[in-house]
Amino acid sequence: MAINDVYEQTFDEDVPAETHATGGCPECGGTVLTNSLETSCEDCGLVLEDRPLDYGPEWRSFEDEPEDRKRTGPPLTPTRHDRGLSTEIGFGPTDAHGTPLSSRKRQQLARLRREQKRGRWRSKGEQNLAHGLSEVRRVTSALELPRSIRGQACALYRTAAGENLIIGRSIEAVAAASVYAVCRCTGLPRTFDEVSEVAAVTPGRVSNAYGVLNRELELPTMPELPADYVPRLASDLNLSTSTRQRAVTLAREANNAGIGIGCNPTGFAAACVYQATRETDERVTQTSLAELSSVTPVTIRAQWNTLREFLEQGRERTSRNEP
Q1: d(C-alpha 175, C-alpha 1), whole Å
Q2: pTM value?
Q3: What is the set of domains in the chain, with CATH numbers?
Q4: 3-class SS at 49?
Q5: CA quadruple 239, 243, 249, 253: dihedral, nearest 10
Q6: DSSP of 257-270, one letter per residue?
Q7: Confidence bin at 140 (pLDDT 50/70/90)
């Protein structure tokens, strides 16, 4: 019997999602879907299990030697100035077999480590690039952003360095601006205050650098919507699923009607959460919402009054249309 008749020739990703017949989402009781990548709820999006597998080969073959498969190291990464191709001399006291190194060998490795550090960068520009990419990694780590955002931010910083946009500006400012720009382009709910708080420079310099990146590189930035910040506020306050869904609905209805345009999106999101808690009888103060959304209680109160007027007008239109 041939081996092809025994083993399947498709990947697990090609298998369609299957619905669990028993149980349900522990958060909202909705339908749970499972595929080879993750098990998640179809209603609220809660990920119950996430164990992705890498099915890519650990070897590569060249055109002139198709049968000679050579093992390779980790893939290229934009987060390093050399894209991860450089080597490092470790500081361990033993060799690969666990044998302790002699004092003469340790001195030799110390000299090699010093020379390698000196010859790591071919120019001053490459050294500045390495410093900027390390700053991008620090900012993304402080904000607890995913690896995809970190890679895109490093790629954007590398593009800015190639376009000579860093000349005359702080490396730390451009690095923080790259992170904020990627968050805006991908629709990730991170405010400018959050990014500038962990930056190593003043918010004004970060804002100036972001303006240069947005103008010179023509970034596809997306507008900040209040509905994007509602899940964060609801999660920090441990609100119920019904309250969270109601707040998201209010934010989307108000945005479609043009309510809250030109206002702080986090402040309007906090007002939607406050209105939803009043409808579901959950106790949340405007002061606690103001601390989480980085606005003042006066801002939340003003946005809440605007939202209440919009809801009252909707009720009046509904009552007039009823027979």
Answers
A1: 59
A2: 0.63
A3: 3-50 (no CATH), 124-216 (1.10.472.10), 226-312 (1.10.472.10)
A4: strand
A5: -100
A6: TTTTTTS-HHHHHH
A7: very high
